[in-house]
Amino acid sequence: MCVGLSARVVKINENGTALVDASGAKRQVSAQLLEDLEPGDYVMVHAGAAISKITGDDQSETQDLLEAYL
């Protein structure tokens, strides 16, 4: 089973990476798959890469589901 985590983009770096915040855990991920990424956007992260933009509502729903299972 593959699991993607939702995260908020904190900073975009010139080297094709982004600093994201996933429920307080900050990490660098590849941002090369997405165009027009900006701080404040929400993304789905899988295997160290931001793979898609998501809405704030999607992020909230994902967070609620994770909390229900933990």
Supply the key terms.
70 residues, alpha+beta, SH3 type barrels, five-stranded antiparallel sheet, 1 helix, 5 strands, globular
Q: Report the span from N to C terminus.
A: 17 Å
Number of strands: 5
Briefly note the CATH topology name.
SH3 type barrels
Count of folded domains: 1
CATH C-level category: Mainly Beta
Do you know the CATH architecture?
Roll
Helix content: 10-25%
User: Please, what is the average pLDDT?
Assistant: 88
The gyration radius over C-alpha positions equals: 11 Å
Major sheet characteristics: 5 strands, antiparallel
The number of helical elements comes to 1
Strand content: 35-45%
Strand order of the largest sheet: 3-2-1-4-5
Report the uncertain regions.
none
User: What structural class is derived from the secondary structure elements?
Assistant: alpha+beta
The succession of helices and strands, N to C, reads EEEEEH
Give the overall shape: globular
Question: Which secondary structure elements does this structure contain, and how are they paired or packed?
Answer:
Layout lengths: L4 E8 L4 E6 L2 E6 L11 E5 L2 E6 L1 H14 L1
Antiparallel strand pairs: 1-2, 1-4, 2-3, 4-5
